[in-house]
Write a structure and sequence with these properties.
Order of helices and strands: EEEHEHEHHEEEEEHEHHHEHHEE
CATH architecture: 4-Layer Sandwich
Number of helices: 10
Strand content: 15-25%
CATH topology: Metallo-beta-lactamase, Chain A
Structural class: alpha/beta
Distance between the termini: 26 Å
CATH class: Alpha Beta
Oligomer: single chain
Radius of gyration: 18 Å
Number of domains: 1
Number of strands: 14
Length: 287
């Protein structure tokens, strides 16, 4: 009986994380389509037929790919989304098959809405409690999650424009802390990106800088009775970040650095298993 996490990929080209809750497979986000996801799953021992649910943070295409609709219906995989993202899903049309939409998932009972209140994910062999954490991101916001079962507690937050106190409070005493570390401020400011894009990313409703993430992780460690076994950094920008910069920043806190795992866009991570000792040396990537 255990909890394991494998990040299938994280970045602007697609985001998806596999959680094994005991022996039940759940995805957080499905930003890679049903054709690309099996390749990401190779070596995990998990296939599409094993998925019991998909929980999405928000409806941007890099977090939920509309090409999933037919596969979800065929395999009877429910999708859990916040009610404020429902209409965005309804308009996220699969261009190849515009008739396949979230309306059909809803009609067939496969689109499950939640609000800001905790809810229970009843799987075949295990019961998992999920606490949504409302976060600022663009117009409709996004959701972080604290996912708890009998053996572990996982905190997950990506695409957040700032770090509110209620997120830090919710992340106290998690066993795995997964949080975005999107951009290096100097690289962002000196990049060739349009000024309006820089403002969106850095304006408090876009993404977190490395420094903001580092301070958030420090505060979670300070308030926790036991620190997280793993700190997983998500959604690094390919244009405006560098794992080497992130690594140097987090080395300022050895207790954090020895637990640090930096994910990337193109390859999945290895399994992160709870109960194992943290690595002796920090790892830049898990691939």
């Amino acid at each position: 009986m255990s909890v394991r996490m494998c990040v299938l990929g994280s970045g602007s080209g697609g985001n998806s994380t596999l959680l094994m809750l005991d022996d039940e497979a759940v995805l957080i986000d499905a930003g890679f389509g049903p054709r690309a996801t099996p390749a990401r799953l190779q070596g995990t021992g998990v296939g599409l037929n094993d998925l019991r649910a998909i929980i999405i943070t928000h409806a941007d295409r890099d977090h939920f790919n509309p090409s999933w609709y037919n596969t979800l219906r065929k395999l009877r995989i429910p999708v859990y989304c916040h009610h404020k993202h429902k209409h965005a899903l309804y308009h996220a049309v699969n261009n190849s098959h515009p008739e396949r939409s979230a309306h059909i998932l809803h009609a067939e009972g496969l689109l499950q809405e939640f609000d800001d209140q905790p809810f229970t994910l009843e799987l075949k062999h295990t019961t998992t409690h999920i606490r949504p954490i409302p976060l600022a991101h663009d117009r409709n916001g996004t959701c972080g999650f604290v996912i708890t079962n009998h053996s572990a507690k996982v905190g997950y937050a990506t695409d957040l424009g700032c770090v509110p106190d209620h997120l830090l409070c919710a992340m106290k005493d998690v066993d795995i802390l997964a949080i975005e570390s999107n951009y290096d401020r100097r690289m962002e400011l000196t990049s060739n990106r349009p000024a309006i894009l820089k403002q969106r990313i850095m304006g408090g409703k876009g993404h977190l800088s490395n420094e903001e993430t580092f301070e958030a992780v420090r505060r979670v460690f300070a308030q926790s009775t036991q620190p997280p076994q793993h700190v997983v950094l998500l959604h690094l920008s390919r244009e405006c970040n560098d794992p080497r910069i992130v690594k140097r920043l987090f080395e300022a806190e050895p207790a954090i650095a020895e637990r640090l795992q930096i994910t990337c866009q193109h390859k999945r991570s290895e399994w992160l298993c709870l109960g194992a000792s943290p690595p002796v040396q920090p790892q830049t990537e898990l691939f």
